[in-house]
Write a structure and sequence with these properties.
Layout: H1 13-22, H2 27-36, E1 39-46, H3 52-62, H4 68-81, H5 98-103, E2 110-115, E3 120-125, H6 133-140, E4 145-151, H7 158-169, E5 174-180, H8 189-203, E6 210-215, H9 239-245, E7 258-259, E8 262-267, E9 270-276, E10 281-283, E11 287-290, E12 296-304, E13 307-309, E14 311-313, E15 317-322, E16 333-336, E17 342-353, E18 364-369, E19 372-385, E20 392-393, E21 403-416, H10 423-426, E22 427-431, E23 438-447, H11 449-453, H12 463-470, E24 475-480, H13 487-500, E25 505-509, H14 510-514, H15 525-544, E26 548-552, H16 558-568, E27 573-578, H17 582-588, H18 593-598, E28 620-622, H19 626-640
Parallel strand pairs: 1-3, 1-4, 4-5, 5-6, 24-26, 24-27, 25-26, 27-28
Antiparallel strand pairs: 2-3, 7-16, 8-9, 9-15, 10-14, 11-12, 11-16, 12-13, 12-15, 17-21, 17-23, 18-19, 18-22, 19-20, 19-21, 22-23
Helix pairs in contact: 13-19, 15-16
Amino acid sequence: MTRKTSTANTQSAAMAQAQAAARPQTIEAFLAQQNEQDLLRFITCGSVDDGKSTLIGRLLWEAHQLFDDQLATLKSESRKYGTQGPDIDFALLVDGLAAEREQGITIDVAYRFFATSRRKFIVADTPGHEQYTRNMVTGASTADAAILLVDARAGLLTQTRRHAFLVSLMGIRQVVLAINKMDLVDFKVETFKEIEEAFEKFAAPLGFESITAVPISALKGDNITQRSSNTPWYKGPTLMGCLETIHIEKPINERFVFPVQWVNRPDASFRGFSGTVAQGLVKVGDEICVTASGQKATVAEISTMDGALPTAAAGDAITLRLDKEIDASRGDVLSLAQTPLDMTDQFEATLVWLHEEPGLPGRSHELKLASQWTRASITHIKHRIDINTLAHDASRQLQLNDIAVCNIATTKSLVYDSYTNSKSLGSFILVDRITHATVAAGMITHSLRRAQNVHKQALTISRADRENLNGHGGKVVWFTGLSGSGKSTLANTLEAELHAKGMRTYILDGDNIRQGLNKDLGFTDADRVENIRRIAEVAKLMMDAGLIVLTAFISPFRQERQMARELVGADNFVEVYVNTPLEVCEERDVKGLYKKARAGKIPNMTGINSPYEAPQNPDYITEGTPTSMETSIKELIALITPR
């Protein structure tokens, strides 16, 4: 297998000879050259069909990174798909998925390696389509620089601006503005200048250290590696020249950060903590500290697959063996004892919402930061960023691709840092607890002061003391079902029976609560999530007082009912699904709500124009009919007060 020669019709013989002469003549020389070079990671980004994949294919071609069999396949695939007529379609080198080739768009992130005589490169070809913005964020997370492509015919688009903002948000400070398809606008200098000036004006607040605009044609090769005769008015570097000379100053963070991935115990004589050094340096003999517990020990050995090391640095996959046993497990973060890390359970962050389902304050998610997992929720959306103007807009929920500054609260304290200081401890993802889909990526700005100023008060009288006085345990019985299903009637009857037995009870009913505690909330999805969150917190407090709490709410969303169960505790939570059919509820229509909803006077009526997610595994199901009432009450009493 040999490297490709000047078989391409688009290259002159002289250019091919010059490039061939520049290649190392032996494998040893090639490897030596690679080892001496530094590595630049960059991404290509921009809107759909701006030419990102074509550009990368052209770069690979020009850098002579194609083998003969790859070249033959490329020519065959180009003829098959016919997107460029008789010419080679360079995009096919990177668009690996069948759907990408058929649709002519990038879906997944494609990584490619190539090298020139001056530098090595790893390029991530990221999708331009809005629905794949999450993949663009993934590609940008490890990049040092960005090539932002713009179609010269279209100029700056919303997705161009979104990608530019995300590039800035991910900490990339070197940008090459590649104004592509100049051949389709007759290489007009006016078009180039207009786009360059518009982008510089937009990007002024984004904090880029350098923006280099280059007029190119990725398909034809203009200003890629050689200056084009079609742009005599352009005096700047070629695109490859930019990539070869961009200066990347790697951030130096001396604080040692080691997220524990696994407790390695192959036999009784060895116990170590395995993971990858996120930042900093550790040596044998260093005193380390478990951030969460404060326990300290000394590094006795640093093990790797290739043997022991005296020192390990960022990026090294290692196992630390300590001089004594300490209590640490997956999710703990180790640091040097003299440079401890910080913890918080509330912080401000910039969120990129990546899911079709809206992001609602109060909704519970799983949060992953380094190797740490916990439950978390958005407590407040401070503002959403208008991607076209960078203005701050008020918002009560997040839609797909929204970028917003939010407050986040977690159920346990996490080791953290700001994203500016540490990508490893400053970046996180939110995961849907039902579907396990990644719904958001976040970058921490700072911890909230309240996290350090609020402390749990130690009380003399415990829940057990109150339950002992009452003569029974506390419980939360959560009735859910459509409006008119009979939830309140069933809860009221059950309370009367429990009261007659001498038990201390209280009913939290939807209508009553909305007249007081939650009178500020409406019936949007966001307000309904917050309504249930508050009710769950109140129910937990009342249960802590030793009461049997009966709640009668539609509570239409599974996630919030699951949140209530986990907040209260599964052993103390009884979910009762009042499974009355919609047509029966609508016939009853005690409050006249269904009639109004059918007339279009109520925009968010559950079961009509707002969804109800029925419980999948409730603790008890009843039909909510008068004939089933007596049986249901007896069975619920037995369930709540087992002998």
